[in-house]
Amino acid sequence: QVQLVESGGGLVQPGGSLRLSCTASGFTFSSFWMFWIRQVPGKGLEWVSTINKGGTSSYTDSVKGRFTISRDNAENTLYLQMNSLKPEDTAVYYCSDGLTLWGQGTQVTVSS
Prior knowledge:
Order of helices and strands: EEEEEEEEEE
Radius of gyration: 13 Å
Helix content: under 10%
Structural class: mainly beta
Largest sheet: 6 strands, mixed
């Protein structure tokens, strides 16, 4: 079964950190570019970060210097390390192949 399963979300105070994980199964994870995308309730999807097959990454401007995307192809897992979190980072975070594969999402709430 082809699926992506996110974990690691939660409630954190401003300035705190979280690490999201996305475990892939049913497809050759190492062959895919992977994406983190977030959505605030009532708003559209926002691209957060991309990592290609070779490990090169890119980020939306609002998270540069605070978030780090990485992948462990041996473990079929994608990560998003989020530091210096801000209330505006509050959203549901999804991992995706950017096409047809999406996880169920994990809620990140940044609040004091």
